[in-house]
Structures are given as structure tokens and as C-alpha cells.
Specification:
Helix 2 packs antiparallel against helix 3 and helix 5 packs across helix 6. Helices cover about 40% and strands about 25% of the residues. The strands form 2 sheets. Strands 1, 3, 6, 9, 10, 11, 12 and 13 form an 8-stranded mixed sheet that branches. A 5-stranded mixed sheet has the order 5-4-7-2-8, with no helix packed on it. The chain is α+β, with helices and mostly antiparallel strands. It has 2 domains: about 180 residues, Regulatory protein AraC (Jelly Rolls, Sandwich); about 110 residues, Orthogonal Bundle (Arc Repressor Mutant, subunit A), CATH 1.10.10.60. Strand 9 and strand 10 form a beta hairpin. The protein is built from 10 helices and 13 strands.
Length: about 325
């Protein structure tokens, strides 16, 4: 995959923070954590040990290690050796740590401390890590700013105030980009698993749809962008994304609209036009069909949503 295409994808990366916490594990203990509803990211602040994934795999870690786990990876445990006799299950090991944050503790006097966060990360509504099947581990000790970023995130959630969620999401995006950069420099892009990455011709068309969602895209025009015939493009696209190109374009447009509803005060009519809908009523019907609520209700709900660990999976996971 060309570096410039990956750079374009990163510019479209949308990171949403669902939960944040602190995991502490003492010698002789294992901390059992559940499968999350988004990508679970551990940043090891202190201690060395092993992460035991649900499929029986083991991931060793040291301080300044980033570990990424997709829900496909299942539940997991943090331990010093992976065979500690005492097990603390997360439900029985949790306690509030400031508003909007939880602490999960296994035993007294912990030797392992990890900042953890549950995030969704997508490009134009496509899950960036959809096909990730194994834990990904990156050592980032050469990026001391990343430790500062996680410490800042933890401090923010102990005393949340205006801008806390936006700052935390920016810090999480920073960590993802740094991990991706290290992988790209090694020629390894396992952390990104968008189906289109297997075919650079499809990726060209996908990037055009994501970067210019309001444009009057047609099947013929997208096929020309990809360098394929109309029939071949339609066939390959449907095989790769399990939906026709125009259906995915609709998803991209509505996803962009959802982001604008969350993050701006733009009138709904302007948002509709910005993402390619000339009619507000047609936009509202399409949005309601995808998100189970109209744009106004979605915006109001987004404003009142808590940044804490108890936050439910965001309704931005539109029905496809």
C-alpha cells in the first residue's frame, strides 16, 4: 500500500472514546477483563508481565507498551507471569476513580499499572480494525510524549471539565497514529485491516467517496477512478464490502453527518447539504433509518452523553 494512501486514510480517522480506566495487578494475582464493545487499548505505565487472550495466546509487555485488542480477541487477563493463583474478575474488582473513570484492582500493592481505554476508530464509518483477529503490541518507549499524553488523559478524567472528552479523544488518536507510524516504517500494517487495502484500485474510489461525500458520485465515475470497467468495479466492490458502492456512499454521508451533528452547531439543513442531500426531509428519513432517531434527537442525545466508563456503545454504529 502506498504511503500517501495511508496518509489520506489517517486524515479521515475518527476516534471516539467510549470508556477509560486504570488497571492494577499485584504479584500473585491475575486481573480478568471482559471483551469490550470497541477496540481496547492498554498503555503499560508500570511493571512487566503478560496479557493472556481468550484464544490462549500470550503477549508479553513492559513499561511503555501499547496493546490493541479488538472484540474479536475476546476476554483477556493481565498478570505478571500468566499463571498467578488468584483471579480478580473485573466486576468484583472495580471502583470509581473520579467522575467518569473506573479503577480495576487485583490484590494489594500493585506492580503492574495500565491505563486502558475503549475506543471506536473508523474512517468514513468503516471500522479501521474490523478484521483484526489478534492482539497487536507496540513498544513506544522512544515517544516519551505518549506517556505524558496518557497521564494527562487520566488527570482529565479525575477532574472532568469543558473539553475533557475532546482532549482525551485527540490524545487517543495521537497514540494510534504513533503506533501506525512505527508499523509502516517496518513495512507492517496489521493494525489497519480495511478490506480495500487489499486492492489499491478499490482504495482509490473509496478515498474519493470519503474525502468528497457531497460530490455527485456515479458508478461510472467511481469505476473510472479505480481504473476498472463498470461491471468489474461493481462486482469487486460488492465482494469486498458486501454492499454496492452507492450503499456504502450513503453510509459514509450519514456517518459524516453524525459527526457534524455531534461536533458543530450547524443547522440541520446545512449539514444535509454538506454531505450531499439537497432535501432536509429526505436526509432526515435516511438518517432515522440508519440511527433509529432523527438528526435533532441524535444531536441532543450526543450533548448529554457522559464521558465515563458507564457510557453505552454509541448509537453512531449505524445499521448497515
Amino acid at each position: 500500500m502506498k504511503t500517501e494512501n495511508l496518509e489520506r486514510l489517517l486524515c479521515l480517522l475518527d476516534v471516539r472514546l467510549q470508556a477509560i480506566g486504570l488497571c492494577e495487578v499485584a504479584p500473585g494475582w491475575r486481573l480478568s477483563l471482559p471483551c469490550a464493545e470497541g477496540v481496547l487499548v492498554h498503555y503499560i505505565l508500570q511493571g512487566s508481565g503478560v496479557l493472556c487472550s481468550g484464544d490462549g495466546g500470550f503477549v508479553p509487555f513492559q513499561p511503555d507498551t501499547l496493546i490493541f485488542l479488538h472484540p474479536n480477541c475476546g476476554s483477556h487477563e493481565l498478570a505478571m507471569t500468566g499463571a498467578e493463583p488468584h483471579v480478580a474478575v473485573w466486576k468484583n474488582a472495580s471502583a470509581p476513580l473520579g467522575e467518569g473513570m473506573m479503577r480495576f484492582t487485583a490484590g494489594d500493592d500493585p506492580s503492574i499499572v495500565s491505563a486502558c481505554a475503549v475506543v471506536t476508530a473508523d474512517c468514513g464509518g468503516l471500522d479501521l480494525f474490523e478484521q483484526l483477529r489478534e492482539p497487536i503490541c507496540e513498544q513506544v518507549r522512544d515517544h516519551p510524549g505518549l506517556r505524558q499524553a496518557f497521564n494527562l488523559m487520566l488527570a482529565e478524567f479525575k477532574h472532568p471539565r469543558f473539553g475533557t472528552r475532546a482532549l482525551a479523544e485527540a490524545l487517543m488518536k495521537q497514540s494510534l497514529v504513533i503506533a501506525l507510524r512505527q508499523q509502516v516504517e517496518r513495512g507492517d500494517v496489521r493494525l489497519i485491516s480495511l478490506p480495500a487495502m487489499r486492492d489499491t484500485r478499490l482504495l482509490k474510489a473509496l478515498l474519493e467517496m470519503m474525502e468528497q461525500p457531497a460530490r455527485g458520485h456515479t458508478l461510472d465515475q467511481l469505476a473510472r477512478t479505480s481504473g476498472m470497467s463498470r461491471s468489474l468495479f461493481a462486482e469487486r466492490f460488492a465482494e469486498t464490502f458486501e454492499r454496492p458502492p452507492m450503499d456504502l456512499l450513503k453510509q459514509i454521508r450519514l456517518h459524516r453527518a453524525a459527526n457534524l451533528l455531534r461536533s458543530t452547531q450547524l443547522p440541520i439543513q446545512i449539514i444535509a447539504m454538506t454531505v450531499g442531500y439537497a432535501s432536509r426531509s429526505y436526509f432526515s428519513r435516511a438518517f432515522r433509518a440508519a440511527y433509529d432517531r432523527d438528526p435533532k434527537a441524535f444531536r441532543e442525545e450526543a450533548r448529554t452523553r457522559s464521558p465515563g466508563v458507564a457510557a453505552t456503545q454509541e448509537s453512531s454504529n449505524a445499521k448497515h
